[in-house]
Design goal:
- The chain is an alpha/beta fold and 140 residues long.
- It has a single domain, classed as P-loop containing nucleotide triphosphate hydrolases (Rossmann fold), CATH 3.40.50.
- It is 28% helix and 13% strand.
- It is built from four helices and four strands.
- A four-stranded parallel sheet has the order 2-3-1-4, with helices on one face.
- Strand 2, helix 2 and strand 3 form a beta-alpha-beta unit.
- The protein is globular and about 40 Å long.
């Protein structure tokens, strides 16, 4: 089975999708939970690299500044999207994540077009690298 990254704006449905896949027995990690995101808003790169190295069949969800560094380690990258008014409605109503509860958060959502991939220059895409034993290191 493949390693899959599910990414997208806050409110796009990443956590809902992961919860459904988890209920179906898939190994999932929501990086909004359990300290995956450091104080600077980036994934803990050593921890993420270890997770992906140890789990050939995993679905990870999150949207962080340095996620693009890990795209080569995923078999597929799935970008979830929704109209901005839907995103705002969802983040305002949810109770499982505080992001979106403030005017500043919602203003940021209105002005952000898509998840940031600036650290690698890469765009989210779905690709198949299954069977490729020479996966590049995210810190290379």
């Amino acid at each position: 089975m493949p390693r899959i990254l599910v990414t997208g704006m806050s409110g796009a449905g990443k956590t809902t999708l992961l919860d459904a896949l988890d209920q179906r027995g898939r190994l999932t990690v929501d990086t909004d939970r359990d300290g995956w995101v450091l104080a600077d808003g980036r994934w803990d790169e050593q921890r993420m690299a270890a997770l992906l190295d140890e789990n050939p069949d995993i679905i990870v969800a999150g949207t962080v500044e340095n996620q693009g560094r890990f795209y080569p380690l995923f078999d597929h990258v799935v970008l979830l999207s929704a109209p901005v008014d839907v995103l705002l409605e969802r983040v305002t109503a949810r109770t499982n994540n505080p992001y979106g509860s403030t005017v500043a958060d919602r203003t940021e959502i209105r002005h952000t077009r898509r998840p940031s991939n600036r650290s690698s220059g890469a765009e989210p895409r779905s690709s198949s690298t299954a069977g490729n034993p020479s996966r590049p290191s995210p810190t290379a």
